[in-house]
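Memo to structure team: turn this sequence into structure tokens by end of day. - J.P.
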Amino acid sequence: MKKSIVKKAYSAVQSPRKTSTSTTPKVITSVKSLKKQYLKSDNNMCKVTFRLPKDAAQDAEMVTIVGDFNNWSVTENEMKKLKNGDFTLTLELPCNREYKFRYLIDANRWENDWFADKYVPNAFGADDSVVII
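Reply from structure team:
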């Protein structure tokens, strides 16, 4: 009996179009948070749209993105809060690099990007998100 519940849950995750039942887990469908648009006019630049979903931001009033690209400034890149509760910001960044970053929520809580290209340990015992351009 236990095997069949696990098998059903696994099937629901693999095929999110299936109708949810009480024995299957809820599948979260959200917009992928990192969007990269390589600029044709400048082969060395990429517009990167960072998006922190409401599920990660919870009831945040303000979110800033902090990373290599802004010398880890906690005030330089404030994100815009959307009507649905997500936060977003687009930055133009030079290509052929990896950038470490994190989200600072209400100036007191750190969050990683759920869709980062990878994660690397930092000096504070946590991980930093990485976007590869």
